[in-house]
Amino acid sequence: MLLTPVCVALGLAAGPDFPDAAVAALILLGGLAAHAAVNTLNEYQDFRSGLDQRTIRTPFSGGSGALPAHPEAAPAVAILAMVLLGLTTGIGALLLAHAGWLLLLPGVLGFALIVAYTRWLNRSPLLCLLAPGIGFGPVMVVGSSIAATGNASLTAWCASLLPLFLGSGLLLLNQLPDIEADRASGRRHLAIHYGAAASAHVYAALMFAALGSLLVGVGGGLLPMHSLVALLPFPLAWPAWQAARQHGQRIGQARPGALGANVALTLLAPALLAISLCLG
Length: 280
Prior knowledge:
Layout: H1 3-13, H2 21-49, H3 51-54, H4 66-69, H5 74-99, H6 104-116, H7 125-149, H8 154-175, H9 179-184, H10 190-194, H11 196-219, H12 237-247, H13 251-254, H14 256-278
């Protein structure tokens, strides 16, 4: 959930002026509700499909384990998911009235990602890979910028590329320990379809794309020179890539710290970029 305030802050920082505090709080609440909705819906659907009973949990993959431990809570979790989805929709309607119809584009796309992720997108290697990056990148960063200002600057679009590539890389590595359990449940994401070795190569490509988006943004004048500070956490990608290449789907048991390094990179780089944009 920490990635949501980071991405919202990045979207707000990319605008010409910081919005009214009440509007900023509403944007953050909407983002948190959306993130909680997709997590809760995923938790419920994974329990119902039997996937949660097959996974080998690590600190960064395999679900929370809450519903297998307390199956009687499943109906309440389903209700909570619907409440959060309703809250997301309601906040979206308020922000739409404030910002204008341009917000409808990221809003509808975000809603579709929440509803379709577990049931449908997980069955397409490409869509499953891109879904989290699109959700945290263009939808959340650009959506926050539109909600605050009624417009989306080129800076906001450029800034959204960093969480796009990092978010997709985060999910990709976290899927490696779950390959067999996911396959048995009918999923067909990239790690299942192409294997762990290919996933390590795709992860490396995503990290280079993230790094490149910063360099191109600064070189093209869309980001200030001091935004290069966001490059500082990128060495954390090296142990994550090495562990994925060497251990494959055993990464969660053999090198859980590598998954943690990947999480840290995904949080720190956009946070530093947001701070750099706030400094002007």
